[in-house]
Amino acid sequence: MTTNRPKQLRLIIETDDFDGALRFYRDVLGMPEQAAFATEGDDRVAILHAGIATIELATPAHAANIDEVEGVPESAGHSLRIALEVDDTPAAVAATETAGLASIAPPIETPFRSLNARIQGPAGWQITFFQELEPLETRESREGFTTDDERER
């Protein structure tokens, strides 16, 4: 393992509707904002904390499987998606709907023991809210949970 591993994942979303995106992530979802450097005029940036970050690598077949599990229509179309762990998926969906964002798929309990829902976020990004229904230690003992190098191909 490298001794210079990343300390932070920062996802950069370029958007023409900066105010709308900022309102959504900071005000609707409640992500705290930290100070960030920008010059003036249209040079705007906001760095928002979203808790712990992970990178999920998925094949197209796995992404299609997740769409099916979450009840996402095939016509939803996407290539980039943000998944945010929340304490209460239905409440997160309700807050985004109140803010005028469209729901793509309602909350559904997945086979991997989370409560997932998908909405259409700002700047063309789809957002999955997921609420873990049991601790990772419990899920790890269930059939189908393993690391890629241990998984049969």
Descriptors for this entry?
alpha+beta, 20% strand, 4 helices, 153 residues, 6 strands, two-stranded antiparallel sheet
Written account of the structure:
The protein has a domain at 55-150: Signal recognition particle alu RNA binding heterodimer, srp9/1 (2-Layer Sandwich), CATH 3.30.720. The protein contains four helices and six strands; from the N terminus they run αββαβαβββα. The protein has a four-stranded mixed beta sheet, with helices on one face. The chain has a two-stranded antiparallel sheet with strand order 1-2. The chain starts with 17 loop residues before the first helix and ends in a 13-residue tail after the last helix. By secondary structure, it is of the alpha+beta class. The chain is 24% helix and 20% strand. The protein is globular, with a radius of gyration of 17 Å. Strand 4 and strand 5 (114-120) form a beta hairpin.
What topology emerges from the helices and strands here?
Layout: H1 18-28, E1 33-34, E2 47-48, H2 60-70, E3 81-85, H3 89-98, E4 103-109, E5 114-120, E6 126-132, H4 136-140
Parallel strand pairs: 3-6
Antiparallel strand pairs: 1-2, 4-5, 5-6
Overall body shape: globular
Q: Structural class of the secondary structure composition?
A: alpha+beta
Tell me the helix content.
10-25%
Order of helices and strands: HEEHEHEEEH
* CATH domain topology of the domain at 55-150: Signal recognition particle alu RNA binding heterodimer, srp9/1
Rg over CA atoms: 17 Å
* Count of discrete alpha- or pi-helical segments spanning 4 or more residues: 4
* Span of the ends, CA to CA: 24 Å
> If strands are numbered along the chain, what order do they take across the biggest sheet?
3-6-5-4
The name of the CATH architecture of the domain at 55-150 is: 2-Layer Sandwich
Give the amount of beta strand, in percent.
15-25%
Low-confidence stretches: none
Tell me about the largest β-sheet: 4 strands, mixed
